Amino acid sequence: MAEIALPTALASKPKIQLRGHLFAIAWRNLWRNRRRTWLTAGGIAFAVWMLIFARSMQDGTFIIMIDNAARMMTGHIQVQHPDYRDDPRVENTLQQATLIVEQVAAHPAVEQASLRAQAFALVSFGERSFGAQVMGVEPEKEITWSTLVNTQVEGRYLEKSGDAFLGSVLAKNLGLGIGDEIVLLGSAKQGGVAAVVATVVGTFTSGLADIDRALVQITLDDFREGWALAADEAHAVIAVTNSVIGSEEVARSFDGTNRVSLGWTDLMPEVEQMVEMKQIGTELFFVLIAVIVTFSVVNTFMMTVFERTPEFGMLMAIGMRPGSIMLQLFVEAFWLCSLGLLLGLGASIAMITVTAATGIPLPAEATEMLANYNLPDRMYPAFSFDAAIVASIAMYIGTQLAALIPALRVNRMRPVDALRAQE
Amino acid sequence: MTEVVVRCSGVTRTYQDEAVPVYALRGVDFEVRRGEFVSLAGPSGSGKSTLLNVIGGLDRPDEGRVEVDGTLLNDLSQSELSDMRLNKMGFVFQAYNLIPVLSALENVEFIMQLQGVGAAERKERARVALASLGISELEHRRPGELSGGQQQRAAIARAIVTNPVLLLADEPSANLDSGATQELLELLQRLNEDSGVTIITATHDPMVMSYAKRRINLRDGAIVEDAINEALPA
């Protein structure tokens, strides 16, 4: 054998311990126990998939729900007089409403825009009278987007001057039927009496008690005449957008002098509140899942440290600092989490892409009921980027925390004790 | 006079075994000079591994002083001890010597990565070390693909690649058959003779003792004999 020649003194000046190579070693370490790595990564992937899919289903449902609620009554956007929201007096009208509705309708995200005027009035039939909201609408436009028009209607929708369309509970309370004549009495714009006589041409049952018992629609022209509004006056420009997503930004673009533009969160605060409440429930679910995953990863890393204690002793003996070994464990946790995230995100994207196109069919009993309220017979998830980001961050934090406990144990290890662990 | 590499003065180490103190080392005094090949011998529990660990800074004495290459280890922090081991010592153990996920070449390179040596120099030095130990053709094999003897050679290559002041070997032949043990010992002997590396090995294997130039016998934590190996040529 040749003479043993030791390498000469180091040419490079020693710098800090380890750098990029740590990632390569940590990645290879992950595959020392393939089954355990796949099981743990699979657990992370399942949790990520579940979080994203559940949230995407919820978001998809919320979008349908918000859209339906908006199309039932408020629209996605309303442009109003600045004071009308807090003080809905007849006097607080939009001037040059036709010009505004044209501007709103010209926006590419707006599907339809129309004018409305509204006030409270006493609705009378025979001896009976009830208070209700009277809404003057443009029937030819409302019919293109309003779900109220098609919600268990008896009779027909508004077509011409003199027609009235009202809630079925109100009709029942008044004891009237199709073809009966009602009188609407309220306070007109100039302080006079607003009086309109109209013939009931149809009733609706929305399932929403407030609407079914206290809403009457008449034509906008009849309203203007009865409530003494000018030909170019209205209380609101109602806009329906192509999608709920982004409609708030569209709404803000219509703000201007002597008018304010409200999005669906302003128009339906109760719906926004409900969405927020449900999202809190989902976030608690997120936390629970993250905790479960963290514990499973803690177990993996405890086993890792237990099995590799003599090796850690050897590493410390040859001069690797405990801090560097800790760092290596954190990098292993990072890789493990990245692997799980990759699998989980991949599965989520694939599944949501397919189901968003085809929909998830609901049971027959449910679809019949939903159809009555213009709700679809399938659920359509909408990929939640928020959930993907939150799930990723939560998993990274969870796995790093999971690695912290065994890593601290390594940090406290004395090399001699670690080496003795092999004995 | 040859330079002293290791100096132990009054080194005592006591362990608590439940409530009973166990004296692993009792006031050990000795010196090792540059270029020596010393075997710490003795039966199990005699304190040879403890003494090796104390010299290597893996364990701290309860009393006494330990100096390596002029540095008093007692005063060093854990990080400073890590750096001392990294830059001045090489270790060979009986098992778990190599990182299983790295090839022989990468294992030898690894210690230089800890030192922050540049990639090209790292690779070159690692190849020289492996070639010196006759296993350059195995450089891409992982430890699981090497025999016990080959693994020990790779471990020695890693231990010497940084040109350490001191090579410490704890029961290096424990997991080897007699043929592989002989090869390993011849290797250590040649390393000592050709390159002047100071070697201290803890062993109870008579064959290992026979290759060392100096034998220190320990019993119950104390040195009972410190003798030159007369069987070896001067």
Question: Could you characterize what this model shows?
Answer:
- The complex is a heterodimer of chains A (423) and B (234).
- Chain A has 423 residues and is of the alpha+beta class.
- Chain A is built from 14 helices and 12 strands.
- In chain A, strands 2-3-8-5-7-6 form a 6-stranded mixed barrel, surrounded by 4 helices. In chain A, strands 11-12 form a two-stranded antiparallel ribbon.
- In chain A, a hairpin with a 2-residue loop joins strand 2 and strand 3.
- In chain A, helix 2 packs antiparallel against helix 10.
- The two termini of chain A are 35 Å apart.
- With 234 residues, chain B is of the alpha/beta class.
- Chain B has helices spanning 48-55, 78-88, 104-115, 119-132, 148-160, 178-195, 206-211, and strands spanning 4-17, 20-33, 37-41, 63-68, 71-72, 89-92, 166-170, 198-203, 214-219, 222-228.
- In chain B, the strands form 2 sheets. Chain B has a 6-stranded mixed sheet with strand order 6-7-8-3-9-10, with helices on both faces. In chain B, strands 2-1-4-5 form a 4-stranded antiparallel sheet.
- In chain B, strand 9 and strand 10 form a beta hairpin.
- Chain B is globular, with a radius of gyration of 17 Å.
- At the A-B interface, helix 1, helix 10 and helix 14 of A face helix 2, strand 6, helix 3, helix 4 and helix 5 of B.
